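Hi there, hope your week has been kind to you so far. Thanks so much in advance, here it is:
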Amino acid sequence: MGCNRNCGLITGAVVGAVLAILGGVLMPVGDMIIQKTIKKEGVIEEDTVAYKNWVKTGTDVYRQFWIFDVQNPEEVRVNSSKIVVKQKGPYTYRVRFLPKTNITKNPDNTISFMQPNAAVFEPSMSVGSENDTLTTINLAVVAAPALYTNAFVQRLLNSYIKKSNSSLFQTRTVKELLWGYTDPFLKLVPYPVDTTVGVFYPYNNTADGEYKVFTGKDDISKVAIIDTYKDKRNLSYWPSYCDMINGTDAASFPPFLKKNQILRFFSSDICRSIYANFESEMNLKGIPIYRFVLPRLAFASPVENPDNYCFCTEKIISKNCTSAGVLDISSCKQKKPVYISLPHFLHASPDVSEPLEGLNPNQEEHQTYLDVEPITGFTLRFMKRLQINIMASPAPRIDPLSQLKRNYIVPVLWLNETGTIGDEKAAMFRAQVISKINLLGLLQLVLLIIGLATFVSFAIAYCACRSKSVK
């Protein structure tokens, strides 16, 4: 009788130990199963989950524009007063809805493609129509002395500026400013020149160049990383390592992200590669995500961040590279005086916004962030915020610029390109990825807990019985 009881207790303890061991063994085995699945479905190859989302995003992407309306154009022109601006927006367009084209598989486990550009106005998501008018800097006039430095040519251009009654500022519709209009000054120029001007002209029916990215077939840690852009690994805009094309296009990253990773990505909009750092864990529609944010140091002056020395190109406006927050991308824009910053000059030095009134930088509204699912590396939500500015400088041979007494970095507009995984896609993602991972983790935990509890309880009972029998 005692033997039967003791044997039963020993058997129970053994069963508990086996369950606990099974739960423990399932942890690395489960991780291996997850990794194997991700490595299979995360490769950019036909019939994989990654490929379907890569060819055409399943997320609606929008570009919201806030345009700076200049309130005191005459005061600025005559007295070089502070420019008073008031933002109007958002004016919203749906973008990135066309599938990739010219998709070509390469023998080196890369794939080439073009991403067509298209924008469709969304009235229901906008404060007004595309025909709303605003007062803004005259793009053609302020660019003229930067593009043509010869004194004779400047005087010649000035005659056409005067004849067309062009001034330092102009009134344009939202549609004209964004996508293009025929400039009256350029229309008079007798030699061949593109007479259409616009912040994003040309855009529709264009592509910003051919990309070649790694498929991840031979190495999943390289999936979606850009190999070349326009057949080059460098941009030819910047000296040293600033000219390198690093990371992905930010739509996705290699899987199995860690919090201490730096996410690197390239954006043709700002003509450079940039990076984001982990900020916090969050939950998006039932999916655990990591939020990565563009840090302030990415825009700091070389005095604070020596890594940025090769982005410093303008000694006048950047005060010998001690001023922060603005990037001169004129070399990327056919020498047009275009400057990039975060909206409302967030993280910029005070001297940058000193000649302006009406700006209110706000971290929450104006920062750029990416919400990435860490196991797959898919970006499920993003807010890419960017401000486009034009330099207006004194130019004695150009009448509208001759009375200026200082340089202005004039904010034209800022944009928020945003996308969030839809409810249907989120439900599918939860079912195909999160639920299976959670179920496996739960099974591991249950087996471990039940096994340990069973082993401990039976072991204690056995020891108690043994002590009684000894007495």
Summary: The mean pLDDT is 86. The first helix runs from residue 2 to 41. The radius of gyration is 30 Å. The chain is about 30% helix and 25% strand.
